[in-house]
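S.,

Sequence below, as promised.
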Amino acid sequence: MKKILSSILVIVLALTMLFTLASCNAPSGTYKSDEVMNSGVTWFFKGSEVVLTVKVLGVESTFYGDYEIEKQVDGKLTIEFDWDGDKNPDGFGEQPVSYVKGDGYIEIDGEKYKKAD
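The prediction came back faster than expected:
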């Protein structure tokens, strides 16, 4: 009985550590690109949900969906989006794309976005 309880405890601790490490890399809040000619990109992350707002010459398009971050075999992180409905942002072809979280910024597919809040 003690061996079974020990095994269960080890599994629970391992799962807790896995989810804790995964959440360390998860973005939270708002991230923005530099705005040029009244154009830019804003990401808002909350839990597993994402809102992407793309502004081109002052005209905004907003996309809603979910995301998932995975650690690849080489140790690098990727992020994959599942956009709601048939409305997908232009430029989001092949997924997953590269993802980096730094101090006050994130990078998605090589593009840097600064923490806004």
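The first strand starts at residue 29 and ends at 32.

Coffee later?
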